[in-house]
Amino acid sequence: MAIAVRLRWCLQIFMLEACVVLTHAANLDYLRSTLTNYFSDTRHHAVKPEYKQRTATFIHDEFIRFGLETTYHNFVFDGVEYANIIGVLKGDNFGTYDDQIIGVGAHYDTVNVTKGVDDNGSGSAALLEVARQMTSLESKRKHTVIFTAFDREEYEYATFDGRFYGALGSKYLISQWLLPWIQKNYPQTVGTFSPYGIIVLDTLMDYNNSARSQIIPPDSLQEFQQLFPGVVKNLQSDNLQGDFLATIFRTQSDSRLANEFHQQWGKMGRADYEIEMFGLAPNLPDDVLNKVADLNRSDHINFWAKNIPAIFLSDSANLRGKMQDCYHHTCDSLEVMLNDDNLNFLAKTSDTIAATVDKLSQSYAAVSGAPGVGKTVLTLMTASSICVFLIQTASRL
C-alpha cells in the first residue's frame, strides 16, 4: 500500500509538471481584456469608424505579435472600403499536395445600433485566444492554419440563391484572396485541393441554464424535429436550457471537422457546458431550409457555396436567453453579457477549437533526447494520450 501511495504521488507530481503544459487552457484575463478594450462598442463603418479601425488594428497587431504571416485584404462595396484581416501559420507541408489547410474565422464588425459584445466580440476574442494558444506552444505542425477576421458580415441586403444574408467579407475574401492565394502557393493541386475546412465563430458567450431560456421557433418546430430529432429530444428533456454550444454542419461534407470538434469538446471538462450537433442532410428542399434559416446566418454559408468544408459554432444568438432581447440591440453590452459563466463558456469553446486545430494540423514538439541520441519528434496529441494514461493509472492506485 505504501508503494502504491508513493507511486500515485509521483505520478501526480509528474502530471502537474508535464501534462498541464500539453493541455489547452484559455487565459481568462486575455479574453476579458480583449472584450473590454476592443469589442465593447459599435464597430460600424458609418457610426463609429474610429473604434472599428482601432479594433481592426488590434487584431492585425496581435496576429503579428503571435508570429503569423499577416495581411489585410481590402475590398470595396457601394463605394466604401472594408478590411478582412488574415494571419497564416505555415505548416511543414505548406505549398505541397500533402497540405490540408484548416481555418478559423470570425467577423469583427457590428450592426449600427449595438455594442456587439456577443455578436461578435465573443467570436473575435475566441479567434485571438486560439491564435495565442497555438503560437505560445513550442511546437510545429504539418498542416497550415489560417486565422481570419471578417469585415462586413452584418449586411442585411446581399442575396445568395434567393435568400437574404450578410457575410460580404467572407464572400470577397474567398474570391479575391483565398482562391488566388491557393492557385499561387499550391499550383499543382488546382482542382484537387482538399482542405480540412474552416471553423466559423459567431455569437459564442450567452450561456443560460435557466429552464425555458432556449427557444425553438414555434413556426419551425416541425422542421427542427424532422432535421434534428436528437437535438430536440435533448432540449425538451433538459427543460429547454440554453446551456449548450450549437455546432452546425453538413453531414455529407463537414462531418470530419464536426466530429473532431465534438470529440475534443468532451475532453475539456465542465460537463455543465454542453454541446448539440445540428447536422444538415444533403439535398434538403428550399422550403425546409428556409424554416431553419437561423442556422445559415453567418460566414460559413459562403464556404459552403464554394464546396469548402465549414462548421458554424454559435450560442444560437436571438434564440437564447438575454440575446432574445439584445441581438442587434444596444443591450448586447459588457454590462449584460460579461459575467463569469459566459466567460468560462467562451473559454471552453476556445480551448476546444485550439485542441481541434492542433489535432488536425498535426502539431508536434521537438524534444531533446539523451546525449548522442539527437532529437525525437513527439506529437502533442500523443503526449496528451500519455498523460491520460497516467491519470487513469494514478486513479486506480
Element layout with pairings:
Layout: H1 2-19, H2 28-38, H3 49-65, E1 69-77, E2 80-89, E3 102-107, H4 117-136, E4 140-141, E5 145-150, E6 159-160, E7 163-164, H5 168-185, E8 197-201, H6 221-227, H7 229-237, E9 244-250, H8 255-266, E10 274-280, H9 286-291, H10 300-305, E11 310-314, H11 323-326, H12 334-337, H13 340-360, E12 363-368, E13 375-379, H14 380-396
Parallel strand pairs: 3-5, 3-8, 8-11, 9-10
Antiparallel strand pairs: 1-2, 2-5, 4-12, 6-7, 9-11, 12-13
Write structural notes for this entry.
- With 397 residues, the chain is α/β, with parallel strands linked by helices.
- The chain has one domain: Zn peptidases (Aminopeptidase), CATH 3.40.630.
- Helices cover 43% and strands 18% of the residues.
- The protein is built from 14 helices and 13 strands.
- The chain has helices at 2-19, 28-38, 49-65, 117-136, 168-185, 221-227, 229-237, 255-266, 286-291, 300-305, 323-326, 334-337, 340-360, 380-396, and strands at 69-77, 80-89, 102-107, 140-141, 145-150, 159-160, 163-164, 197-201, 244-250, 274-280, 310-314, 363-368, 375-379.
- Helix 1 packs antiparallel against helix 14 (380-396) and helix 8 (255-266) packs across helix 13.
